[in-house]
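To whoever picks this up:

The parser on our side crashed when reading a file containing two proteins. I've narrowed it down to the boundary between the first structure block and the second sequence. Both blocks are reproduced below exactly, byte for byte. First block:
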Amino acid sequence: MSSYSVASPYNTETIYQDLREGILSLKYKPGQLLSENAIAAAYQVSRSPIRAVFSRLANENLLMILPQKGSYVTLIDYDFIREIIYMRTLVERDILKQAAASCDDKLIKNLESNLRKQHRLADLGSRADHERYYQIDNEFHQICFRHVGRDLLWQILQEHQVHYRRFRMLDILSQQILSKLVDEHELIAQVISSGDTNKLDQLIEEHLVNGLHRIEQLVMTEHPDYFYSSNSN
């Protein structure tokens, strides 16, 4: 009797993108062991392409590969999150002021369209697609960067999302705060539309720093095992 093997419908790039997205969206939790054998079986491939994928993820600081022990999803660097929020507060404060100073009908329409999407998701409550909300939230900020001609700066900020995106997802998933986030975006859009740049300093700081305050509670209570401090001795 002849035997044959059935080709897997998944290629290495697809597996890489799936696992990467799974880590960033918290499908795979910080500190979770990822088994080469289990992943290979799930995607109907040998362990060889899985090793290649794991190596790529390790190079992005998404996996930590420990010889003879296994491969683990990296923990979230709490100190890095604090620095990213500090940087984004400084950068976005200036971007939003520029957007307010040059606000036009196109910007207002784009922000209003984005806010309608946010409201639709927030109205779903616990049934909301939180990953989709994260994407729409991101788009709100990107609209402002694009309006003032800072697309490249936006892309640079996105290159540092390994820890920040997981932090944001944990915040959104754990607190069920979509309505509050939408309200904050509404206020920012209103101020941009009015051109009153004096209010933006406080609004953007509250919008970005409030998440850090919420996450501090998670670190201390619900998920201390998800985080580590890169500045600890």
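<<boundary where parser fails>>
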Amino acid sequence: MKKSTYNLITFSLIALAVAAVAVYYLPSVNFFGDETADLLFKDVLLRVFVAALGVFLVATSKCKDLLTPKIKRLPVNLLIILPCIAVALVNFPFSALISGKATVERYELIPLLFIECVAIGVFEETFFRALLTDYVADKLKNTRYNVFWTVIISSAVFAAWHLFNLFAGASVGGTMLQLLYTFLLGAMFSFVTISTGDIWLPIALHAVFDFGGALVSRLGTGEFQDAIFWILTLSVGTLCGVYVFIGLIRLQKKETADRNVQTETDKT
């Protein structure tokens, strides 16, 4: 791609994202005359344009292969990330919805919420698990425990990104808690990306996780995080954490072995 074309597309996507931000923060701009629907639609506009920018930047970077779906390896990859899939699924408020402690009131907005969650997943995974992780991995490629440090650094930056929620009115305590679990989620998504070489799988997990967490809080009422929710979250999350840690150890050993072989080859 010519540099002029690249710059034009990049500038256009950034301009559209800025315009979407302007629309988002202008309370006088309404589309449906419905506060919930208008806010959600503005969210979607903003997220979609930023997600498109993320995909474009990855597609024109050296980590562009991550955008190629690994269809033939999909069954194997799904088995590899099975505990991570469980983490995404238990974030749905199944128990509270079944018991009636929580209800979804705006069913007609579910497709719009799902689009927003997918767009968030695309944006955050392309920026943090593709571009940032690739950059950090390249800088640390000749260091000891480079896989672990790459995951730790990229996950820490991903967690810190959520500090911006404070400017949106989030509580300090809630944001600090979010920093912890987004760091852990970031490590999980990094493991999925590195293990499968496919950015679409962490995007899917990210979207499902966010959708489950936002379903009642955005479109319904009630206490959706009941005792069963927390028991499942903590138990599945702990098991997945152990699984991911062991998986990263294996990935680190493989990377170190491959690097040693390459070093010996270069000497000869």
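After patching the parser it read the second block fine. The first helix runs from residue 3 to 25. The chain has two domains: 1-60, 68-267.
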